[in-house]
Amino acid sequence: MIRRNESEGSTDDELLARTADGDTDAFAVLIRRHQGTVTRVAFRLLNGDRDAAEDIGQEAFLRLYRNSARFEAKGMLLTYLLTITRNLCLDYLRQKRPTDALEQATEMASPVLSGEARALQNERAEAVRQAIRALPEEQRAVLVLSHYEGLSYDEIASVLGCPMGTVASRKHSAMASLRRSLGGKI
Amino acid sequence: MNGPEDELFSLLDAWEAPEVDIEEAVLRRVHADGETEALRSEVNELRAEVAILRREMESMRMLLAQRLAPPVESSRGLPLLPYRTNDNFSLFPEQGGTR
User: Fold this and answer.
1) How far is CA A28 from CA A22, A23, B27, in A?
2) Which residues of B are less than 8 Å from A121 in CB distance?
3) Are A38 and B21 a contacting pair, CB within 8 Å?
4) How far apart are CA B11 and CA A88, in angstroms?
């Protein structure tokens, strides 16, 4: 347990270096540290498909593990993971037109709510999901990384491989579209 | 930030993402990946050994064919190419012998 506590305090770069040496305990810390962000991003990029988001999250970490000896994190591990995640999501969406994930969107609503409040919450969540789903993928990616995960424009530019100015204009367009489509719900 | 903007952000937060734990599944796949890699390397080693054995068998087959072939005779009945063994024959010509 001492080892685990020590690992929890290590930087991503240190953990990745140890992972490259075959230390799966170090890799487990990386998974625990970033799995939330990776699966949430995949979930929203895939329009609420939880199963696919889990699969893609696993695949992203597996690829990180396989490339751990070649990759130098330099403080950018999460950016790298999110780049892999987004590419996997794009591949998935290209291969398969996802079915409507209404059940999953409903299932994830907060369990502390009940009755009418839960129904209202579900309705709002579904409206948001549909509105975000209608956005062009590039705008959706910017919105998800910026609004939901709090990444800076600089970080988003690294993930998407585009200039910061493009990130800003995509965010602006996305917000304008959402304001139009969700105007009735505000 | 103005009011409607705040309300839009607040509305966006209505779409929650589930908390997913994939640690165990990923580590299981990493383990399976390692086993697959070990098996693959074992298969590659076996393939290399099989290739060496094949080459040795081919050399043996050629040597046997050479020894069992009847000597060629001249029109006068004398051996034109008397059979003789190649004393320098080696299965491993790269180590100094010749075929």
Assistant:
1) 11, 9, 7
2) 14
3) no
4) 28
HSE of A56, CA atoms in CB hemisphere, 13 A:
30
Chosen from A21, A23, A30, A35 to mutate, greatest number of chain B CBs within 10 A: A35
Q: How far apart are CA A186 and CA A47, in angstroms?
A: 21
Q: Where are the beta strands (DSSP E) in chain A?
A: none
Joined tokens for residue A92: 């998935």
Provide the pLDDT for residue A2: 40
Residue B21 has pLDDT above 80, yes or no: yes
- Angle, to 10 degrees, between the axis of helix A24-45 and the axis of helix A12-20? 120
- Contact assessment for residue A34 and residue A89, using Cβ atoms and an 8 Å cutoff: no
**What three-state secondary structure class fits A1?**
coil
Please say if the pLDDT value at position A21 is more than 60. yes
**What are the backbone dihedrals phi and psi of residue A134, each rounded to the nearest 5 degrees, phi first?**
-75, -15
Which token pair is A99?
């079915």
Residue A146 clears pLDDT 90, i.e. is over it? yes
Categorize the per-residue pLDDT at A102 as very low, low, confident or very high, splitting at 50, 70 and 90: very low
- Which residues on chain B are in Cβ contact (under 8 Å) with A53? 20
Sign, CA torsion B45/B32/A17/A161: positive
Give me the sign of the Cα torsion angle A90, A175, A105, A150: positive
